From TrEMBL:
Pfam families linked: Cupin_2
Skewed-composition ranges (Low complexity): 103-120
UniProt xrefs under InterPro entries: Cupin_2, RmlC-like_jellyroll, RmlC_Cupin_sf
Entries under Gene3D superfamilies matching the protein: Jelly Rolls
Domain Cupin type-2: from-to ranges: 13-83
Organism, as annotated: Terrabacter ginsenosidimutans
The protein, known as: Cupin type-2 domain-containing protein
Amino acid sequence: MALHTESMWSGTVDTEAGAASGWHHHGDHDTTLYVVSGRLRLESGPGGEVVVEAGPGDFLRVPAGAVHRESNPGDGTSRAVIVRCGSGTPTVNVDGPAPSPAPTHTSTPTSPSPASTDDV
């Protein structure tokens, strides 16, 4: 069941246990998910390092343009109600999340070793 207007889409999505989507974003659409049953995992952020899990009664928000993927880490089928508001292409598939930032190496200034008692 789905409802579609010029600037809004809403419907239900069932996801089988262990299934995962590819990496994608929703362009200019803001998305709200309400988990009806089962489990839902959402990965996003640089390197996909931000992971949120939700269960029945939880809401999740995916901001416009946020690269992410969803999966069902549970043992049974999950069901979510999705409301997506915006304009333009609703789903844009991408190769993966933005890369994780490279680690920054900081150097610790070396200080002279403390004077030994022999130096005094």
